[in-house]
Write a structure and sequence with these properties.
By secondary structure, the protein is of the alpha/beta class. It is built from seven helices and nine strands; from the N terminus they run αααββαβαβαββαβββ. The strands form two sheets. Strands 5-4-3-6-7-8-9 form a seven-stranded mixed sheet. Bound molecules: S-adenosyl-L-homocysteine.
Length: 215
């Protein structure tokens, strides 16, 4: 659980790389700097932790590429104190980046092993994230409404209950599409409840799956 000057130096380089790729929000760049990504990978993979690439985290899943984490975070238009629902906790890295921006984070994971790993690990890092084991297709009605919903897996379509759990004026950000490639989409719920849609280019995510895994 070490975070040394060397790690911080590697993170500073990563932040510069992401800035060059077009992430301009300094608060988000600072959040990427604050979260020690190497601690989310098994030790031995240090050289990969600060490359701007996704990486396997076990159970057939990946920790998202830092640029993608920053990009999705930017699309959420966060303000401190907002309530954000993440679907697909995975390693918990994205959830910590959100928490570092002083929003209240609720995150759901359907694979028990990943959920338990994150539940044990995140408090040790000092990030306050509310973790839930369950099916993100259902959202988290008991904690709704949310200012933003972030899906970090590829959704063939957005379950309509997730729009119901958004506040008027809230946004839902998700990669939408099939297994090969998806379009990043931001949906905005108007005051009257109408859903607007904007597209933001192509990405590749692991699929959002229905029902819980048997692990
Ligand atoms: N946000 C993660 C990366 C997510 S990878 C990070 O920062 O590391 C996508 C995750 O979504 C995987 O962990 C996968 O198990 C989870 N997932 C897939 N379908 C799901 C569903 N229906 N509900 C909740 N989580 C789901």
């Amino acid at each position: 659980m070490e975070d040394t000057y060397r790690h911080k130096g590697m993170r500073r380089k990563l932040v510069n790389e992401i800035r060059k790729k077009g992430i301009l929000d300094e608060n988000i760049l600072e959040a990427i700097y604050r979260v020690p990504r190497h601690l989310f990978l098994d030790s031995g993979f240090l050289q990969y932790a600060y490359e701007d690439k996704p990486f396997p985290i076990g159970s057939g899943q990946t920790i998202s590429q830092p640029y993608t984490v920053a990009f999705q975070t930017e699309l959420l238009n966060l303000k401190p104190g907002m309530r954000i629902l993440e679907i697909g906790t995975g390693s918990g890295y994205q959830a910590c980046v959100l928490a570092a921006l002083n929003v209240a984070v609720y995150s759901i994971e359907r694979q028990k092993k990943l959920y338990e790993k994150a539940r044990n690990f995140l408090p040790r890092l000092g990030f306050d994230v509310h973790l839930f084991y369950g099916d993100g297709y259902l959202g988290l009605p008991e904690k709704a409404p949310f200012d933003g919903v972030l899906i970090t897996a590829a959704a063939p379509e957005i379950p309509s209950c997730l729009f119901d759990q958004l506040k008027p004026g809230g946004v839902l950000v998700s990669p939408v599409g099939g297994a090969e490639v998806q379009t990043m989409v931001r949906y905005t719920k108007s005051k009257s409840g109408k859903i607007g849609r904007e597209k933001f280019g192509s990405f590749r995510f692991v699929p959002l799956l229905k029902e819980k895994a048997n692990d």
